[in-house]
Design a protein that fits this description.
The chain has 86 residues and is of the alpha+beta class. It has 1 helix and 5 strands. The chain is globular, with a radius of gyration of 15 Å.
């Protein structure tokens, strides 16, 4: 995915705590969203810090998938060995 821009916002779901929502937007309408729990005991993070945390989370997920049965999801609805990709 060719990254065009990144958006950072706060998502508040009814009955839940606030979440940081980072959206990585790419060419052709592609996007990846990462929801991160806001940590109330920590000072408010800047957008750059939140984006860096989201990017680090994606790297950890990619490393996990690479170690888990070859690292590529099947073409069957995004499911592979108990993992569901949304």
């Amino acid at each position: 995915m060719q990254l065009l821009r990144t958006e950072c916002s706060i998502a508040i779901d009814s009955g839940a705590d606030a979440m940081h929502l980072v959206t990585f937007l790419g060419e052709g309408g592609e996007s990846i969203q990462v929801r991160l729990a806001a940590v109330p005991s920590e000072p408010a993070a800047s957008d750059n810090e939140t984006i860096a945390r989201a990017a680090a989370t994606m790297v950890q997920v990619a490393a996990f998938l690479a170690q888990d049965a070859g690292g590529s999801p099947s073409q069957e609805g995004g499911r592979r060995e108990g993992h569901q990709f949304r």
